Amino acid sequence: MNTPAQPPSSPFGRFLSRLAPIQPAETAAVVAAFFLFFFMWSGYFSVRPVRETIGTIIGRDKLADIWIITSIVSVLIIPLYGAVVARFRRSMFLPWMYGIVAVVLVITGLALRQDAINLAAGKFFYVFISVVNLFLLSVFWSFLLELFDRQQTKRLFGVIAAGGSAGALFGPFVSDLVVPLIGNSGVLFFGAGLFVVAIFCQRILLGVWSERADATTKAEDRPIGGNPFAGVPLILKSPYVLGIALFVVGISCVNTLLYFEQLRMVEEHFPNLENRTQIFARFDWVVQTLTVLSQIFLTGRIAAKFGVKTLITFVPVIMIFAFGALAMSGAFAVLTVVVIARRAMEYAFVRPGREMLWSPLDKETKYKAKNTVDVPVYRASDALSAQLNNAVAGAGFGIAAVAWLGAAVAALWAGLGWWLGRRFEDKEKLQGDRVAASATVRPSGSPH
Questions:
Q1: Is residue 341 situated within a structural domain?
Q2: Domain contains 397
């Protein structure tokens, strides 16, 4: 994204430029992306505590089966998404997605208003929000990968991701305050309103995209075309993309093992449903506070100084030792620290680093293969990991066995992250060499 140099035009833009290495010409796009992520993610996280409380009501055993349904829905939605990408301009379908989420939240909220413990509506909501949060996140980053070049992603993705983290803090904070007054259905209505605001932010960001000085926007903003099922072969034919898919499997497995232990311990320690919602919201508060601080002050600097390889490798290494501590202790306090640390580090470091891995790839791979990895692959891994967790628990093994299993997965995850980081560096170097070579070739008759 190359735009004419101009000073930041808003106080918030000037504030961001002091916190992160943002060039003046990039400020408008960064501010728009920051607030889009803020409202989108605050909308999701405002309703997330309701999802977790529903999960404790459903129960761990039945919830593992719900995750199978979630993975099936994730697979089914990909050809639909591929068809949309192939036929509609991104300036049309990107805002539509937020509108669809808002409508579904309103409909579900109306159902829960009639029956606050409506398991059918609750299960539908659990599946829907579990699929849509990954889907919207993947599409958001796919668009930003078109808007910014590789060097800009290193400098800017950290502070943009902080917008999502700030929204993820704001959402549960408000929900915790208002849920005693408006109930779960009211929280869903509140989340729907935030997604409506996100539509307007998306329109602003699309406007910034269309005004780029070097843009051939009409050519870029066209249907991508191709086969809606193209994501799968794109993954299988590239060892690098397949490696990203397996890296996501590692993230999912570690997350799932901790998630089900968290549900079990919260259910044991907090019999009151409102208290469960509050503890889930407070987990989010702490996680997002740590994440925002890390993303603003650390993520971009670590990526720029040490590279993507460090960004995506050191967190899995830390998780090896964290799982070991949990295996030896088994205490709720230790689990709380491990869960909070893993989530904060994933949002602050692994997520931006993982998105950077896609930057050297072509547009079709970014939209189709990436969304296949981010949604059905992730959710299928969730379902398998949940069944594995149930099998370990059903065999009579306790939290120590689950934790040692998590440590083994984290070790494999770390090795794969290191390999992907090396491949990413090779691809960057290759592309840099090509750009340098093309710059040395002068057209006939050009001045020396």
A1: yes
A2: yes
Q: Is residue 448 part of a domain?
A: no
Strands of 216-297, DSSP E: none
Residue 252 has a pLDDT of: 94
> 385 or 396, which is more confident?
385
**Long-range pairs, 222-226, Cβ under 8 A, ≥24:** 222/89, 223/85, 223/86, 223/87, 223/88, 223/89, 224/85, 224/86, 224/363, 224/364, 224/367, 224/368, 225/86, 226/82, 226/86, 226/364, 226/368
| CB-based contact 280:53 (threshold 8 Å) | yes
d(CA 145, CA 138): 11
CA distance 446 to 424: 35
Domain containing residue 202: CATH number: 1.20.1250.20
User: How many CA atoms does the CB half-sphere of 163 hold within 13 Å?
Assistant: 25
Structural contact between residues 314 and 349, judged by C-beta atoms closer than 8 angstroms: yes
pLDDT higher than threshold 50 for residue 329: yes
The yes-or-no verdict on residue 230 having pLDDT over 80 is: no
Identify whether 16 is part of a domain.
yes
Range of the domain at 97: 11-440
Low-confidence winner among 13-27, 116-130, 256-270, 362-376 (lowest mean pLDDT): 13-27
- With beta carbons less than 8 A apart as the criterion, state whether 194 and 39 touch: yes
Residue 325: CA count within 13 A, CB half-sphere: 14
Angle at which helix 308-329 crosses helix 332-345, to 10 degrees, equals 170
pLDDT at 448: 39
Per-residue HEC secondary structure of 348-365 comes to: HHHHHHHHHCCCCCCHHH
pLDDT at 235: 92
**Would you call 286 exposed, middle or buried from its count of C-beta atoms within 10 A (0-12, 13-18, 19+)?**
middle
* Pair of tokens at residue 250: 């590692």
Residue appearing with tokens 């909308």: 43
Q: What percent of the chain has pLDDT over 90?
A: 34
Domain total in the chain: 1
As a whole number of angstroms, the distance between CA 316 and CA 336 comes to 18
338 near 320, Cβ under 8 Å? Answer: no
Instruction: Read off the pLDDT band of 9 (50, 70, 90).
Output: low
Q: How far apart are CA 136 and CA 139, in angstroms?
A: 5
Chain centroid to Cα 24, Å, comes to: 27
